[in-house]
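Technical annex B. To support the medicinal chemistry partners, we prepared a structural model of the target in complex with adenosine-5'-triphosphate, based solely on the information shown next.
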Amino acid sequence: MLVIKDLVKQYGHGEAVLKGLNLSVEGNTVVSIVGASGAGKSTMLRCINRLVEPTSGSITLNGTELVNLKGGELRRARRKIGMVFQGFNLLDRLTVMENVLAGRLGYVNLFQAISRRYPQADIDRAFYLMERVGIAHYANKRADELSGGERQRVGVVRALMQDPEVLLADEPTASLDPRTSEQIMMLLQSLAAELSLPVLINIHNVAQAKTYTERVVGLRHGKMIFDGAPVDFNKEALEAIYGGIEAPDEELAPPPPKEASHGVS
Ligand SMILES: Nc1ncnc2c1ncn2[C@@H]1O[C@H](COP(=O)(O)OP(=O)(O)OP(=O)(O)O)[C@@H](O)[C@H]1O
């Protein structure tokens, strides 16, 4: 369970960009975080994995306080936090398998990491997950030979290789076309259920947030303005979050086709 309490982040001496956030996410809930540009969505996710230092507040993951962890303790805690990025963050010249196995770097010793000698169990897990998301046949291809959607699947598998207790996705579909975006959202949704993993997804597309996640959190100027079910995310909520800032697409995407449980293309 991820529990955020009174989270404040102030960069330098400016106004705080997170102004006392409180959020609990448990089980295999998939939560979307929406809000206008600059609302603090990325800052919030990055505070969780400590890519950004919180100014004050508490973030616990299954009982471990993440704020103020240092050195080895921080590295160990970070292994439990998978992250999926908008720009995929793959090593282009390495193969898909090498990128995927990079998710195990926090677990293997220095010799194994340098020589890229991973335990057989890691390789087996990599194949299982690549198979699951439909990229196993690309295992030996260079990452830069893949399409955007395929690259994001590599990013997802790499994050899952960490054996995470929570998965964070920072605008995972923003670089993808609409159809591929929907496939990635469906994939995150089904993986959360299969792996009993809470997932937090920063997303600009309100329609996709409402369609593919079961809880929507809306931020405005670093404050939580909405936290509820998609069905309750109405025009008032939309106005409260975006009013006077921007007009996101309000149209709900058509219902998703049911995803096959294996080999998503
Ligand atoms: N490293 C930084 N130093 C100073 N200010 C920052 C830094 N990172 C973000 N900010 C500021 O913090 C505020 C929140 O930014 P953040 O990226 O968290 O918002 P966001 O909701 O994720 O926006 P977007 O949807 O555009 O990614 C913005 O005003 C931004 O300029």
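Notes passed to the chemistry partners:
The first strand starts at residue 2 and ends at 9.
The chain has nine helices and ten strands.
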